[in-house]
Amino acid sequence: MHTFLIPNKRRRVRLTWSCVTAAIGCMVFAQAMAQNAPTAVHDDGVMFSASTNQTPTYLRDIRPIFMSDCARCHNEQSLFVYDWLDYKTAYADRWELKRRIWDSWKGTYYKESMPVANSPESQNITDEERLMILNWVESGAPRGVEPPPVVAKTKAERIELGRRTFMICSACHQPTGRGLPNVFPPLAGSDFLNADKDRAIKTVIFGRRGDVVVNGQKFNNTMPSLPLTDQDIANVLTYVYNSFGNSGLDVTPEEVKALRAQTPAPTVATPAPQNPFE
């Protein structure tokens, strides 16, 4: 066994090969951990750490943010802004997305920040979501693949999964389900919702535009068609029907699938969206 004598003013320290090997191993491990640590973005003296060392992808990470915080304006029925629920469109606009969502928010790009200040979406979007979008753009804006579906087997499971999906709906209909007066109709105790389950399912599948009367009050706005699966729609509607004082109905994926196969009601043709960044 080899030993090493290290001179010291008070005493000599004796090291064995096992000690040296352990020390080298610790240094190698520390270096590897540093290389694999989550990336961080330093901006104006503030360090924002990514929550994962995986590169964000559109389908797994970014589209859920757009659905929750941007879809009221940026959807396929929009007249004047682009549909960011479509990957090709979001990819083409990626640098303007980064400038509007991150740079304007940080005060380094002097155009209107998105989401617009004081809007429901501006209250919903988090610092972590803004950072996720920044990292997605700067890493090449990959599309990725759909995450594996979580299949609910019981009504109770649908309610719980639907509660999470309802975050997408809450920007307009509010977490309480009461909507916004004169803007977005309530889901709480909704006569429109409880009177016709098939109509409610079709509204979520295909979207809706134009007048609707809910609990005696007229609303005229757009309900976008969102890229939700049959399972997602069954979950969220089951949650809504079993919350906010509604009728307690159950919606199954099979019901959604059957209604999706039907031809949606015709809508008025709309002009192609104008580029909001020109």
Structure overview:
With 278 residues, the protein is mostly helical. It has 2 domains: 46-138, no CATH class; 155-260, Cytochrome Bc1 Complex, Chain D, domain 2 (Orthogonal Bundle). The chain has 12 helices and 6 strands. The protein has helices at 17-36, 58-69, 87-92, 94-106, 120-124, 127-138, 155-165, 167-173, 191-195, 197-206, 230-241, 253-260, and strands spanning 3-6, 13-16, 40-43, 46-49, 208-214, 217-223. The strands form 3 sheets. A two-stranded antiparallel ribbon has the order 1-2. A two-stranded antiparallel ribbon has the order 3-4. The longest helix is centred in the N-terminal third of the chain and has 20 residues, at 17-36. The protein is globular and about 50 Å long. The N and C termini lie far apart (75 Å). Mean pLDDT is 80; it is low at 1-51 and 267-278.
The end-to-end distance, rounded to whole angstroms, is 75 Å
Task: Compute the CA-based radius of gyration.
Answer: 26 Å
- What is the string of helix and strand elements? EEHEEHHHHHHHHHEEHH
Annotated CATH topology of the largest domain: Cytochrome Bc1 Complex, Chain D, domain 2
Which CATH first-tier class of the largest domain would you pick? Answer: Mainly Alpha
User: Total helix count?
Assistant: 12
CATH architecture name of the largest domain: Orthogonal Bundle
* Helix fraction bin: 40-55%
Whole-number average pLDDT? 80
Count of extended strands: 6
CATH superfamily of the largest domain: Cytochrome c-like domain
Beta fraction? 5-15%
Global outline: globular
Runs in which pLDDT lies below 50 for 5 or more consecutive residues are 1-51, 267-278
| Sheet with most strands | 2 strands, antiparallel
- The side-by-side strand order for the widest beta sheet comes to 1-2
Strand pairing plus helix content: what structural class?
Answer: mainly alpha
